[in-house]
Design brief:
The protein is of the alpha+beta class. It is built from 12 helices and 15 strands. The radius of gyration is 26 Å and the shape is elongated.
């Protein structure tokens, strides 16, 4: 969520940025509602002051009837104004939630096709093994029974593939711990306040990708980013404690409602998967440098697995509401002979922190909102796709990457 004061002072920037992201917003209506809020708030404060004045006069003796009557009248009027104020504030907040974060100057403009490659690593393989055919033939993956139990795009991992997933997680965890992150397991459900505070669509939205719990103010998480964002909700952190680096492991649940035309084969895009997510709370002046650090950690992880990739600076039209800038890492798929997304990392500045009320007290006593960043360490289902495409042998065994062998009892092949 953006600050109304910031919107007032940067009208053109906010409107232009929203347009570049593909959002239709009504900034004049926001300003009009904020003006209305201020006017009603002024009236409410005046009535409260008058009410306190009357209450003071009533102390120490029997008040005059006219004073009692005036007190009743002001109390009624104040109640009506407070109700009106609450209504306007709710309406204003609803509009503010529809305004996306402002993009950084170095974000490419345009749609998905305008994203810019900023670096590349590794030699692209010319041949690979289809992960679904291979894993199914070895009895490692069962989508058929997953569909029988839970519906399409649910699955069972079995035997060596389930062990490989665990090895991949353990490897990713060792890497984030090496870089100073605190490991956390997190709730698999969050409230609507946390969900919307992260910048995800509310329950009422037709575009919502989340599974909601009927009769409860809860949704299944699409990423550990959600509960990690809410971890310090309504707290004031101390400047000396920042930055805070967290690594959250969770199951992730997604309807994948907006995936028409995207690559969905096998494990690449499913309704439930496990993921290790990096998350940072930091001072505003630290966030750009930390964004680059998160990207370096992601690269370190996949270089260790010897997977060719490139990094792209995501264009404005493909950015979500919270992100001011986002990098995607895409691995080279030897099967499809193209780059496909494996991880991402975003700088959300104070957008999420403002909505979830996460602040920092500076050494001089002043208080301001922190910045938040997130990045994928290991998406396990999609990570298995990458490994199988690159290390499985057609009609033969799977060659275990060197960095994973310690987590599989030293096995070199599966």
């Amino acid at each position: 969520m953006l600050d109304v004061k910031f919107i007032r002072e940067n009208l053109e920037l906010v409107e232009k940025s929203a347009k570049e992201k593909g959002y239709k917003i009504n900034v004049p209506e926001v300003i009009e509602l904020d003006d209305k809020r201020k006017a009603i708030l002024s009236e409410v404060e005046a009535l409260r002051a008058k009410r306190n004045e009357i209450a003071s006069k009533m102390k120490g003796g029997k008040p005059a009837p006219e004073l009692i009557e005036e007190g009743k009248k002001i109390k009624t009027e104040a109640s009506e104004k407070e109700t009106a104020l609450s209504s306007v504030e709710n309406e204003l907040n609803t509009l503010l939630k529809q305004i996306p974060n402002v993009i950084f100057d170095d974000v490419p403009l345009g749609g998905e096709e305008c994203s810019v490659e900023v670096k590349k690593w590794g030699e692209n393989h010319k041949t690979g093994v289809d992960h679904l055919d291979y894993a199914t033939s070895r009895g490692w993956l069962d989508f058929e029974r997953g569909a029988k139990v839970a519906g399409a795009k649910f699955y069972y991992l079995k035997s060596d593939l389930a062990l490989l997933e665990n090895a991949l997680f353990q490897y990713g965890l060792s890497k984030v711990l090496e870089h100073g992150f605190t490991y956390m397991t997190v709730p698999d459900m969050v409230s609507s306040r946390v969900l919307e505070g992260c910048g995800f669509n509310p329950r009422t939205s037709e575009q919502s990708d989340e599974y909601f719990i009927e009769g409860e103010d809860l949704a299944m998480i699409a990423t550990a980013e959600m509960p990690l964002t809410g971890y310090h909700m309504d707290e004031i952190l101390d400047e000396k404690d920042l930055p805070l680096f967290y690594a959250g492991y969770s199951a992730c649940f997604r309807k994948e409602a907006g995936t028409y035309g995207k690559y969905t084969r096998g494990l690449f895009r499913v309704h439930q998967f496990n993921k290790l997510e990096m998350y940072v709370f930091c001072l505003p002046e630290q966030s750009k440098e930390i964004h680059e650090k998160i990207l370096e950690i992601e690269e370190d992880i996949w270089q260790g697995l010897e997977i060719p990739y490139h990094v792209i600076n995501i264009a404005a039209g493909d950015l979500g509401a919270p992100a001011a800038k986002k990098y995607d890492m895409e691995y080279w798929s030897p099967v499809n002979q193209k780059y496909q997304e494996i991880t991402s990392c975003s700088n959300c500045t104070d957008f999420q922190a403002r909505a979830c009320n996460v602040r920092v007290r500076r050494k001089d006593g002043s208080v301001e909102f922190v910045h938040t960043l997130n990045g994928t360490a290991i998406p396990l289902a999609r990570g298995l796709v990458v490994l199988l495409e690159n290390y499985a042998k057609e009609g033969g065994k799977f060659e275990v990457p060197k960095v994973l062998q310690p987590y599989l009892g030293g096995k070199k092949e599966l």
